[in-house]
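Re: that chain you flagged

S.,

Sorry for the slow reply, it's been a week of failed gels. I finally had a moment to sit down with the sequence you sent. For the record, here it is as I used it:
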Amino acid sequence: DYEEYRRENRSKFENEFSTWRTGRQSQRDMLNKVDEHAEVVGSDGERIGTVDKVEGDRIKLAKNDPEAGGRHHSIPCSWLQSIEGATVTLNKSAVEAKTMWRDE
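Prediction finished late last night. Pasting the structure tokens below so you have them in one place:
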């Protein structure tokens, strides 16, 4: 059964993975456009914080920002939706991002 299922779904997987990989590469490319001190907002437009710097494939947020509570937090590039001017918009709401961000 397993081999039959794999054969039948191979094309679907390859198409979905190709789409996912293209999207992920676009998000990684966006990291080059992230500027220090840019404002980070959720998909709902609510403020999350300020960019401190980019480290690897993560954006580290400033710990002196009122939203940070005196601690550094980081978010992965997979959360990037768009970058327009000095504003980075995520594909998660502010509440989701703050619940899921990583303490540094």
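What I noticed first: Residues 2-30 form the longest helix (29 residues).

Talk soon,
D.
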